[in-house]
C-alpha cells in the first residue's frame, strides 16, 4: 500500500497559522483520530485536536475525498497555530502511526501520477510558487490552466491525422501512390513543421519571463559600468573607484522593471591585459555579453570613441557617460557616426545619476515589447525547447524520406508523436521525473 505523506504546506517558521497537508490512504483515519470525527469533505470544520486525552491545538480541518483532491488521493489539511511545538507534536504523532514526511514535490508528483495534472502543469505549479514578477505569475497561471498542454495536444492531434493518412497510402491497393494525395500529406507536414519552427523561435520570451531577461553592462575599464549598475539598482553593490580594472567578477542582481523580472550583470572592463585574474574576468564578461538578451555598452564620452571600440550590434544600448566632462558637440558628433546602426543611445552623468531615468523608462518599454504575452509561448523551459527541436528534426527527416520509403516516414512521424508524450510526461523515464519533481519545495 502507498504511504500516507504529510508536510508543512505553508512557509517554515513561526506564524499565525500553519497549514499541514496530508495525502494517502491513512489521511482520513488520522484526522478522525485527532478530531474525534471525520468532517464533511470540502467543508471547513473547527475543533480540538487531541491525542490520547491530550489537547494538542484547536484547528481548522478540511478533508478532500479522492479522486476529488489535489493529489487524487484522500487528502486533509490541518490549519493549526504556527508554533514549533504544535508542529513537532503533530509530526511525532504522524510518525508514530506510520505516516511519512513528504519529499520535495511529492504531492505534485502524486497528482501527476493520478492524472490530475500533466507534466507541464506540474511544472507550472513550481513556477507559480517561485513567481516574483507579474509576468511570471501570469505565465505560470496560463500554463497551469493548460496553456502548453492544449497547444501540444493540438500538434499531437495533427500528427495523428498525418500518420493515419500515410498509413492509408501505404495500404493503397495500387502499386503507385497517387501524386496528389502524396503531395497533400507532405504539405500537411510542411505546414506543421513551419508552425512548430516558428513557435520555437518565438518562445525564447517564455524562458526570458521565467528565468529573467538578461541584461549585460559592457565596456572599457573606467567607462562607468559599475556606476550605472548601482544607479539602476539603487544600491552600492558594485565597487566604484577611479582605478581601471576595479570590477573583476561578474556581479549579478535581480531587477524589477515594470511587470518583469530581469537579471542585470556588471562586468569587468574589456581591454588587453597580462593579469591572469583580470583576463579571466574579461573572459567571463564576454560570455555574459554573448548570452545576454540585451547589451548595454557604456563609454566615456570625454574620450575618443576610437579608443574604446564598443562591439556594437543592432538593438544594443549605448550610454555616453561622463556627459559632465564632454561638450555636447562631442557627444553629438559621436551620435552622428553611429546613425543607422539601430542603437538606443543615452547620455548620462552618473555622478548625479542624470539620464538614468531615461534608461529605466526605455528598458521598461523594451521589455514590455519583447515579453508581452499577447500569445502564449510554446515553451517555457529548456526541457520544452529540447523536445520541440527533436520533434522538428523528426519532421525534417520525414520530409527528407518522403514517399520513397513511406514506412520510414511513418516511423519518423511516430517519433515526433512520442516527443509530445515526453512533453506531457507520459513516457519520460523515472530519472527525468525525479529530476523535475526534486526541484520543487517540500509541501508541494
Ligand atoms: N565625472 C564623472 N565621473 C564618473 C561618471 N561615471 C563614473 N565616474 C567615475 O569614473 C570612475 C570609474 O567608474 P566605475 O563605475 O568604477 O567604472 P567601471 O566601468 O565599472 O570600471 P571597471 O570596473 O574598472 O571596468 C569612478 O571614479 C567614477 O566615480 C560620470 O558620469 N562623470
Ligand atoms: K573603475
Ligand atoms: Mg566596474
Describe this structure in words.
The chain has 444 residues and is an alpha/beta fold. The protein contains 15 helices and twelve strands. The protein has helices at 27-35, 84-96, 106-113, 119-130, 134-144, 147-170, 179-202, 204-211, 225-233, 276-291, 328-337, 356-371, 382-401, 406-424, 430-438; strands at residues 5-8, 15-23, 45-51, 54-64, 75-82, 100-101, 213-219, 251-257, 260-266, 294-300, 317-321, 344-347. The strands form two sheets. It has a six-stranded mixed β-sheet, covered by helices on one side. It has a six-stranded mixed β-sheet with strand order 8-9-7-10-11-12, with helices on both faces. The two termini are 22 Å apart. Potassium ion binds next to loops.
Map the helices and strands.
Blueprint: E1 5-8, E2 15-23, H1 27-35, E3 45-51, E4 54-64, E5 75-82, H2 84-96, E6 100-101, H3 106-113, H4 119-130, H5 134-144, H6 147-170, H7 179-202, H8 204-211, E7 213-219, H9 225-233, E8 251-257, E9 260-266, H10 276-291, E10 294-300, E11 317-321, H11 328-337, E12 344-347, H12 356-371, H13 382-401, H14 406-424, H15 430-438
Parallel strand pairs: 1-6, 7-9, 7-10, 10-11, 11-12
Antiparallel strand pairs: 1-2, 2-5, 3-4, 4-5, 8-9
Helix pairs in contact: 4-5, 6-7, 6-14, 7-13, 13-14
The structure holds guanosine-5'-triphosphate, potassium ion and magnesium ion.
> What structural class should be given to the helix and strand makeup?
alpha/beta
| Biggest beta sheet summary | 6 strands, mixed
Q: In DSSP terms, counting alpha (H) and pi (I) runs of 4 or more, how many helices?
A: 15
Report Rg: 29 Å
Spatially, the strands of the biggest sheet line up as 3-4-5-2-1-6
The assigned CATH architecture of the largest domain is: 3-Layer(aba) Sandwich
Strand content: 15-25%
- Report the end-to-end length measured between terminal Cα atoms: 22 Å
Counted beta strands? 12
Helix content: 40-55%
How many discrete structural domains?
A: 3
> Do you know the CATH topology of the largest domain?
Rossmann fold
Order of helices and strands: EEHEEEHEHHHHHHEHEEHEEHEHHHH
What is bound: which ligands?
guanosine-5'-triphosphate, potassium ion, magnesium ion
Low-pLDDT stretches are: none
Shape: flat
- What's the CATH first level of the largest domain? Alpha Beta
Mean pLDDT: 92
Binding site for (6S)-5-formyl-5,6,7,8-tetrahydrofolate: 21, 77, 116, 444
Cofactor: K(+)
Domain TrmE-type G: 212-368
Binding site for GTP: 222-227, 241-247, 266-269, 321-324
Amino acid at each position: 500500500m502507498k504511504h500516507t505523506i504529510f508536510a508543512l504546506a505553508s512557509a517554515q517558521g513561526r506564524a499565525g497559522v500553519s497549514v499541514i497537508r496530508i495525502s494517502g490512504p491513512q489521511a482520513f483515519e488520522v484526522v478522525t483520530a485527532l478530531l474525534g470525527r471525520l468532517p464533511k469533505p470540502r467543508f471547513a470544520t473547527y475543533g480540538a485536536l487531541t491525542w490520547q486525552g491530550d489537547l494538542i491545538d484547536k484547528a481548522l480541518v478540511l478533508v478532500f475525498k479522492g479522486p476529488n483532491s489535489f493529489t487524487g488521493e484522500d487528502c486533509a489539511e490541518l490549519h493549526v497555530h504556527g508554533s514549533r511545538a504544535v508542529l513537532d507534536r503533530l509530526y511525532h504523532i504522524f510518525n508514530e502511526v506510520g505516516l511519512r514526511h513528504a519529499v520535495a514535490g511529492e504531492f505534485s508528483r502524486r497528482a501527476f501520477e493520478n492524472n490530475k495534472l500533466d507534466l507541464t502543469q506540474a511544472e507550472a505549479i513550481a513556477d507559480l510558487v517561485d513567481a516574483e514578477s507579474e509576468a511570471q505569475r501570469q505565465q505560470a497561471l496560463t500554463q497551469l490552466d493548460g496553456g502548453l498542454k492544449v497547444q501540444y495536444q493540438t500538434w499531437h492531434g495533427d500528427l495523428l491525422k498525418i500518420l493515419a493518412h500515410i498509413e492509408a497510402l501505404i495500404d493503397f491497393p495500387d502499386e503507385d501512390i497517387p501524386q496528389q494525395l502524396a503531395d497533400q500529406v507532405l504539405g500537411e507536414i510542411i505546414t506543421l513543421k513551419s508552425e512548430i519552427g516558428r513557435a520555437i523561435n518565438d518562445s525564447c520570451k517564455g524562458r526570458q519571463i521565467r528565468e529573467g531577461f538578461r541584461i549585460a553592462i559592457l565596456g572599457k575599464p573606467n567607462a562607468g559600468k559599475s556606476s550605472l549598475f548601482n544607479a539602476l539598482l539603487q544600491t552600492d553593490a558594485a565597487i566604484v573607484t577611479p582605478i581601471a580594472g576595479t570590477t573583476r567578477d561578474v556581479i549579478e542582481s535581480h531587477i524589477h522593471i515594470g511587470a518583469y523580472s530581469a537579471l542585470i550583470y556588471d562586468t569587468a572592463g574589456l581591454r588587453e591585459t597580462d593579469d591572469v585574474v583580470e583576463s579571466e574576468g574579461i573572459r567571463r564578461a564576454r560570455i555574459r555579453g554573448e548570452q545576454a538578451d540585451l547589451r548595454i555598452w557604456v563609454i566615456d564620452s570625454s574620450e575618443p570613441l576610437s579608443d574604446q571600440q564598443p562591439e556594437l550590434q543592432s538593438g544594443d544600448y549605448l550610454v555616453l557617460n561622463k556627459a559632465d566632462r564632454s561638450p555636447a558637440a562631442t557627444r553629438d558628433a559621436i551620435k552622428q557616426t553611429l546613425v543607422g546602426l539601430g542603437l538606443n543611445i543615452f547620455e548620462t552623468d552618473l555622478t548625479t545619476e542624470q539620464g538614468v531615468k531615461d534608461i529605466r523608462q526605455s528598458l521598461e518599454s523594451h521589455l514590455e515589447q519583447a515579453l508581452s504575452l499577447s500569445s502564449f509561448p510554446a515553451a517555457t523551459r529548456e526541457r520544452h525547447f529540447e523536445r520541440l527541436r527533436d520533434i522538428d528534426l523528426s519532421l525534417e527527416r520525414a520530409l527528407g524520406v518522403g514517399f520513397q520509403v513511406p514506412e520510414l516516414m511513418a516511423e519518423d512521424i511516430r517519433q515526433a508523436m512520442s516527443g509530445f508524450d515526453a512533453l506531457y510526461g507520459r513516457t519520460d523515464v523515472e530519472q527525468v521525473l525525479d529530476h523535475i519533481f526534486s526541484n520543487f519545495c517540500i509541501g508541494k
